[in-house]
Amino acid sequence: MTMASEVFSYESLVHAVSGAVGSVTAMTVFFPIDTARLRLQVDENRKAKSTPAILAEIIKEEGLLAPYRGWFPVICSLCCSNFIYFYCFHCLKASWQKGNQSTPRTDLITGIAAGIVNVLVTTPLWVVNTRLKLQGSNFRNADIRPTNYSGILDAFVQIIRDEGVGALWNGTFPSLLLVLNPAIQFMIYEGLKRQLRKGVPRELSSLEVFLIGAVAKAVATSGTYPLQTIQSVLRFGQYNMSTEKSKLLSGVRAVKCLLLNRARRYGMLGLFKGLEAKLLQTVLTAALMFLLYEKIASCTFRAMGLSSNHYKKR
């Protein structure tokens, strides 16, 4: 009963809804920067420029609203993804913590476990939103095949019909490796939060939450960026996967080949093409997301009559 009450607790639901709302709001604000990052990752022939220069090119060639192309499917995917991640992270943390203060090690393990669940459930959504976001773009690479999806459901139907159900999980292997990204992010975030409180249960200021959220995401993103690039390429579906019967072996070979090819053609710096745009977008988005998440959660818990005791547990 105790385990069931922790998994299906109102507290985990509050964390999940707060995280989902915070992430959706933050992504909407900084969405154009993510558009610039994605173009640099998948279009190998596009020259690496500053984020404002890339956005100016996109607007000039494709129109004023082009930086927000694919916003709706991305927001749907992000909302589902963060709801699942925050819910799993906090219910697993409550189950393993059992009233004790968490440690960096438990935060990391919990983050990895929550990330694996999240990847396996939401990868099809991310594959579809990557395709929709890039549809109609002016690519410098002539080898990229155009797509014609009328919406989320049509994209699902066409991908399953033309490429098979397995194509919806393209990029799953690098995504599973990339569970380290949010795991490291949450480990650093929770660790810095504990350091700032120094054993005293208090609500952090908005500036403190924003800064530690930014630092946590910057460290996590910088360390895992080459894999994020490969993940985007595989989700876009323009890379010819090997016909191995084993999906795991096929995924490993695809990641290895793409990493080696990029490094060979563009040098080690080629693995970090678009990092400036990614850091700008992801650090600001994560910082704002954590700020909104903490504020929404604290207001909800305060309305529930939880104050100092709740902060001791967190």
Automatic annotation (TrEMBL):
Chain segments annotated as transmembrane: 12-33, 70-88, 108-128
Solcar repeats: 10-95, 102-195, 204-299
Pfam families named among the record's database cross-references: Mito_carr
Main location: membrane
Keywords assigned by UniProt, alphabetized: Membrane, Repeat, Transmembrane, Transmembrane helix, Transport
Subcellular location: Membrane
Molecular function GO labels: ADP transmembrane transporter activity; AMP transmembrane transporter activity; ATP transmembrane transporter activity; coenzyme A transmembrane transporter activity; FAD transmembrane transporter activity; FMN transmembrane transporter activity; NAD transmembrane transporter activity
A GO cellular component entry from the record: peroxisomal membrane
Membrane topology category: Multi-pass membrane protein
Record family assignment: Belongs to the mitochondrial carrier (TC 2.A.29) family.
The name this protein goes by in its record: Solute carrier family 25 member 17
Species whose genome carries this gene: Amphiprion percula
